[in-house]
TrEMBL record:
Compositionally biased intervals (Basic and acidic residues): 232-243
Signal peptide start-end: none
Residue numbers spanned by region Disordered: 232-261, 356-376
InterPro entries named among the record's database cross-references: P-loop_NTPase, Pyrrolopyrazine_biosynth_F
PANTHER family, per database record: SULFOTRANSFERASE DOMAIN-CONTAINING PROTEIN
Name listed for the protein in its UniProt record: P-loop containing nucleoside triphosphate hydrolase protein
Gene3D superfamilies linked to this entry: P-loop containing nucleotide triphosphate hydrolases
């Protein structure tokens, strides 16, 4: 690492699979003059480390990459604070795109998804040798099968993740969502095509419930993300409701990391309808200048990959880039400089974002309630497991949508 990370305040956008998040990340990759980006860094720990809490891949495959296997979730996040593994000379910002479910403990994931294959090892060959670390405080889980209570947003007071609160305070937290009617179906199609080496679809990976819990905790000014329990008790006599966030979160140089409140939250359809407006508002919210060069980029056309190609990628440690124009493959480490090469670890999963040149406009923003999950003239009836996954995540999505902070331009 060159330069110093002392002045860099890392921002994370927590998202869902198939939520237009990689296109959003590409916008920040365009800021190579002042920003370093990381692509789903906690995914390696969640899927492949010896402390992993997602059991989609066999132990033998996870061990095939020793570096990835030995790095736990906490180590990955600590490295992100410092921008470790990057040339940060002259850079001002760190931007990270990641999935909320990757930072939740195995016990919570299993409780949220009791029938899931990915969160319950189906045989010893999928079982990691090390039991993942569990948080001291267990957060009571809501019933996501029905609409969430009106006070859900203020009910999550204890850290629901597997990471220390002090570590999470060193990041700015933002959110990106998409209606499950679109993201779940897209995720299902990727699994059916074998993208990322996936051999089956598991609706538990949709990520809405974990994202809702994380958002509720971060956005609640009375949660222990903002309030230190001991300090709150000692200040009670003074009538102080909570300790100021600016007195709590200490970053890499002893400098407080100010959390934007409420946490910026974008709905993907709004992003696609007005990318210029949304990106400008988002940049303002996290305290960085908007740059018009974020709105477009060059396509990186890949060769057509078959399911066999994807499987071959997985067998080769999922760390090689597809051959392009006859050039030799390039190896990629999970912590290398974010670029299109970083997407290769998930095979063809990000192909659309890789081959795009900008945000693909959608004419009708999602409203969360009016989308039809049944048959239409253009779309056949959805598979039962897709419909069930959509319904199972509706309450979490509706909660998140109600907390959207960046909206379309007001119209007369």
């Amino acid at each position: 690492m060159t330069g110093t990370a002392a002045c860099l305040e890392p921002t994370i956008i927590w998202c869902l699979p198939r939520s237009c998040s990689t296109a959003f990340e590409r916008a920040f990759i365009q800021r190579s003059h002042d920003t370093i980006t990381f692509h789903e860094p906690t995914g390696d720990a969640a899927y492949f480390s010896k402390e992993r809490q997602i059991y989609r891949f066999k132990e033998k495959e996870c061990r095939s990459d020793p570096h990835r296997y030995e790095r736990g979730l906490k180590e990955v996040m600590e490295d992100l604070v410092q921008g470790k593994g990057k040339d940060i000379g002259g850079k001002k910002y760190i931007f990270i795109k990641d999935m909320a479910q990757y930072i939740f403990p195995a016990s919570t994931l299993q409780a949220l998804h009791p029938g899931s294959r990915v969160y319950h090892p189906t045989s010893p060959e999928y079982q990691p040798p090390v039991k993942p670390s569990e948080p001291v405080v267990k957060t009571p889980l809501p019933d996501f099968s029905k609409p969430l209570a009106a006070d859900f947003g203020t009910s999550v007071k204890s850290n629901p993740t597997a990471l220390p609160t002090a570590l999470l305070r060193q990041f700015k937290h933002t959110f990106l969502i998409r209606t499950p009617n679109k993201s779940v179906l897209s995720y299902y199609k990727c699994a059916q095509e074998g993208a990322g080496g996936f051999e089956y679809f598991d609706g538990a990976e949709a990520g809405y419930k974990e994202l809702a819990l994380l958002h509720a905790w971060i956005s609640n000014p009375q949660s222990d993300f903002h309030v230190d329990a001991d300090a709150a008790a000692s200040n009670k006599e003074d009538g102080q409701e909570h300790v100021s966030r600016k007195k709590r979160g200490v970053g890499t140089d002893g400098v407080p990391i100010s959390q934007p409140m409420p946490p910026p939250l974008i709905e993907a359809s709004t992003l696609l309808a007005e990318p210029n407006h949304v990106l400008e508002q988002y940049c303002n919210a996290i305290g960085i200048p908007f740059y018009k060069g974020m709105l477009s980029w060059e396509s990186s056309k890949k060769k057509e990959a078959t399911d066999a190609d994807v499987k071959a990628q997985v067998d080769a440690n999922r760390r090689t880039v597809y051959k392009e124009n006859g050039n030799a493959n390039v190896e990629v480490n999970g912590s290398s400089n974010a670029s299109l090469a970083d997407f290769a670890k998930w095979g063809t999963y990000h192909r659309v974002a890789e081959e795009s040149t900008g945000f693909r406009k959608e004419s009708t923003p999602a409203n969360g309630a009016g989308d039809n999950v049944g048959a239409t003239e253009k779309e056949p009836l959805l598979p039962k497991e897709v419909q069930e996954t959509i319904e199972a995540n509706k309450s979490a999505y509706d909660y998140l949508l109600s907390n959207q902070t960046i909206h379309l331009h007001a119209t007369a």
